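quick q for whoever's on today - can somebody do inverse folding on this one?? i tried earlier but teh output was garbage lol. tokens:
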């Protein structure tokens, strides 16, 4: 306390000077309309800038949650767009039981939001780790999609994390089709650039052109039909001379991938059971 009193005594003239400056400023602003309006204008401008910085900071803090919601909504919209596309194709005729079944399968998928916590990009066998696992209902062989398109397939799962085999892994193989014509093939990756993959096994007579959209075919239990994969960049003849090889510009940017959606096919076990029964019948008949 004594030190504080000594400090005030030593610098009392500074405190008096500051006090007089403040009093002079208050009188200048209060009794001079021009300076008063100028002061309030500058004060309001400063407050507005501070509020803007605060608002931007608050928006940035919540940006992760916004991105997560947008990724999930984008996946849902892709399903809805594909459903509308299929309905439009069937609008000129009475839909059959099989047509209705194709449309009904879109409602047979459950979606789980997740976030990428680790990923490799420049290897021949790249992998991605996401922050959802068995505790959240994630299982092996579930499809994974990002905001830009298909990401890959869940390969292994522990309690709270899962390992995803992305489409930029040399062991990846996903059934895809040309959206405009319906011809399909297998999406593969031969290494190199993470921005391009190959659609192989497309019939030589298939109609395709640069810029055509490539999407999931729905021929597997991992992905519903109509999810965007990428666009055709180039068209080549396959080495076998019997099919085409399409160079696909992938929609997913793996360099900044963060939020993803996992698809669970609710009817997967039923479909697999049908395949197992068919294989068992063929084995019993010696086929």
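ok took a stab at it. sequence:
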């Amino acid at each position: 306390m004594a030190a504080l009193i000594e400090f005030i005594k030593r610098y009392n003239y500074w405190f008096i000077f500051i006090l007089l400056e403040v009093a002079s400023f208050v009188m200048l602003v209060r009794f001079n309309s021009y300076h008063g309006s100028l002061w309030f204008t500058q004060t309001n401008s400063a407050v507005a800038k501070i509020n803007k910085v605060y608002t931007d900071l608050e928006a940035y803090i919540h940006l992760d949650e916004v991105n997560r919601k947008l990724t999930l909504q984008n996946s849902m919209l892709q399903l809805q767009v594909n459903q509308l596309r299929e309905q439009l194709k069937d609008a000129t005729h009475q839909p059959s039981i099989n047509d209705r079944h194709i449309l009904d399968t879109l409602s047979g998928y459950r979606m789980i939001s997740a976030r990428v916590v680790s990923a490799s990009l420049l290897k021949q066998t790249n992998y991605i780790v996401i922050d959802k696992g068995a505790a959240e209902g994630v299982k092996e062989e579930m499809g994974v999609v990002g905001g830009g398109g298909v990401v890959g397939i869940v390969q292994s799962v522990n309690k709270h994390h899962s390992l995803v085999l992305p489409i930029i892994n040399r062991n990846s193989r996903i059934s895809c089709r040309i959206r405009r014509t319906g011809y399909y093939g297998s999406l593969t990756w031969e290494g190199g650039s993470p921005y391009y993959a190959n659609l192989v096994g497309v019939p030589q007579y298939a109609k395709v052109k640069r810029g055509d959209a490539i999407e999931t075919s729905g021929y597997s239990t991992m992905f519903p039909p109509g999810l965007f994969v990428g666009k055709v960049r180039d068209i080549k003849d396959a080495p076998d001379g019997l099919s085409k090889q399409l160079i696909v510009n992938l929609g997913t940017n793996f360099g900044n991938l963060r939020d993803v959606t996992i698809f669970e096919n609710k009817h997967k076990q039923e479909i697999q059971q049908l395949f197992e029964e068919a294989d068992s019948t063929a084995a019993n008949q010696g086929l």
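fwiw Residues 2-60 form one domain. also The two ends are 100 Å apart (CA to CA). so keep that in mind when u check it
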